[in-house]
Amino acid sequence: MPLIYTSVSRGTVTLAEGAAFSGNFSSVAKDFLEKAGKNDGKFTYSVDGHTFNFLTRTGYTYLVVADEAYGRAIPSAFLDKMAAEFTAKYADKAPTAKEGSLTPSFGKQLKQMMEHATQFPEEYSKVASVQRKVDEVKGIMTENIDKMLARGEKLELLTDKTENLMFEADRFVRTGRTLRRQMWWQNCKM
Asked: Which residue range is the domain that position 169 belongs to?
């Protein structure tokens, strides 16, 4: 699973956390919390093939641990979504919450959000979203080109039929003229 662990902290106090796997992610995260919590913004640290992605905003630090191969775009978008969800639901409880007190309620939601981000990464990645739109446009363009080629083939067929019709009309006129002349000579001989 590309997203492994996530947490929300106020300073060095972890208010809620969720993990897809067991590990020492929370203890490693605590080491980075002091560094990450000083300034608002996003920070990423790489440790043992994992990235610890932090977002610090208005005194709260949001963390998601991901496989290093998963990149940074999806974890970054995940952090933004996690911060919005947390702020919307716990803005009033968070300032006075104790260590781990929001894990029973928000921890489950964090796990669900991680699973969703893993199953549908295109919803979190702007690049994947743009790529999907480009693929849709490519499909439409291919259909349009196929239709134009089919019309072109029909036009070629129509052109061929028109040329044949012109040739047959010209032959009909020549044959008619020849027949008329023959009939005229026959009438003259009688």
From this structure: 129-190
User: Which position has the higher pLDDT, 21 or 60?
Assistant: 60
Q: Distance between CA atoms of 183 and 82, rounded to whole angstroms?
A: 98
Closest by CA position to 47, among listed 22, 25, 20:
25
Q: pLDDT tens digits, residue range 31-59?
A: 777 776 677 888 888 888 888 899 988 88
CATH number for the domain harbouring residue 75: 3.30.450.50
Read off the pLDDT of each residue in 103-117 and give the average, rounded to a whole number: 86
d(CA 161, CA 187): 38
